[in-house]
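Annotated sample (chain length 232).
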Amino acid sequence: MSKIQDRKVQVLKFIVEEYLKTGEIMGSKNLLSKYDLQVSSATVRNDMASLEDMGLIFQPYNSAGRLPTNRGLRVFVDYLMQTMPSVFIEAEQELNQKIEKNRIDDVLYGLVARLTKITGEITFACIPSLGTSYYLWLSNYLERHHGALWEEMYQVIKCLENKHQFIDFLSWLDIGTRVSAFIGEENVIPELESSTMIVKRIEINGYTWYLGIMGSTMMDYAFNITALRQVL
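Output written by the structure step:
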């Protein structure tokens, strides 16, 4: 990657991170005051214009600041997937041993509870072939975001409570053994068009399992992707 391309990636990364932390727009002057890019404000404005032409950021109103589009969030998440270091994960053999000693339902619930404790997000686990599904943390999530995301969270609740539709939805998606992220309209059912879902598929004892995180498009992607990798 050339230095110019690398700088544009960094500019996008900083704009997205600022949005995820504060929800605020990022202009060239603010960006340069917070991050040492070692270029002029004009150069950064040119980079931002290029990112806008690519559909990765947009100008929400008549100001110099920009916000990421859902496509920009997708590029950011793909960047995280490529650059994040690998982490130590629980061995599949150990999970198989847990299943032999406990009911599958208990293992599913334990995975969801562990992931929820780590992330503080809405989490879920299911085995489509058994019609089994668990989710946790709706009430805590709504309390934490009181008054801010009611319509969005209502749609998430509606989706999760329709268990069979949600299980079918997971089965339709192209989810590999690596962590996958579906941002906004990348989700194929209307209830999730304003949300992000991060999910991983695992094969255990002949069953296909799905474990995932669901929430706002402003979630902490780096932390949640790492948590999902670590919990398995």
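Annotation: Strands lie at 57-58, 67-68, 122-127, 132-136, 180-183, 195-204, 207-216.
Annotation: The first strand starts at residue 57 and ends at 58.
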